[in-house]
Amino acid sequence: MERVFTELTEECDYTAQYYAVGFEKKEIAEKKHRSLHTIINQLRTAFEILGVRNGRELAIKLCERLCDIKANVRLATYPLRGFSSGNEKGKAKVPVHS
Questions:
Q1: For the whole model, what pTM was predicted?
Q2: Is the dihedral of CA 30, 36, 40, 42 positive or negative?
Q3: How many CA atoms within 13 Å lie on the side-chain side of 60?
Q4: What tens digit of pLDDT does each residue of 51-84 get?
Q5: What CA–CA distance (Å, rounded) separates 4 from 59?
Q6: Residue of 46, 47, 58, 51 lying closest to 13 (CA atoms)
Q7: How buried is 4 (Cβ within 10 angstroms: 0-12 exposed, 13-18 middle, 19+ buried)?
Q8: 62, 4 in Cβ contact below 8 A?
C-alpha cells in the first residue's frame, strides 16, 4: 500500500486508508494485528489532523488525494441526451449551471 496521508504517521496513514475504503475497525485491527483500541486511537488522530468528522469525509479526502482533484458535486455543463439544447424553434432551453 502506498502512503497517501503523508502528514500522518505511517501506521495512522494505513489505518485511515483501510477505514476510508470501507473496512470496519475490527477488521482493520485483525488485519494489522493491533488492538481495537489502537485502531480507534489512530482514527481519532487521523480525523483531527486531516480535519474530517467521519468516515464519509475521510473517503472523500482519500479520493481527492488519489485523483488529485477536489471532489465536488457539480451540475452538468452540457445538455443531457434526450433534452433540447434550445436550438430548436419553439423549444425551451435547458438551464446550464457552471
A1: 0.68
A2: negative
A3: 13
A4: 999 999 999 999 988 887 454 444 445 555 555 5
A5: 12
A6: 46
A7: middle
A8: yes
Amino acid identity of residue 87, one-letter, is N
CB 43 within 8 A of CB 5: no
94, three cell numbers: 435547458
Q: What span, in angstroms and rounded, lies between the C-alpha atoms of 69 and 82?
A: 30
Q: Which three cell numbers stand for residue 74?
A: 457539480
For residue range 13-40, what is the model confidence (pLDDT) as tens digits?
A: 999 999 999 999 999 999 999 999 999 9
Residue 2: the pLDDT is 87
DSSP codes joined into one string, 71-91: ------SSPPTTS--S-STT-
Q: H/E element holding 31?
A: helix 25-32
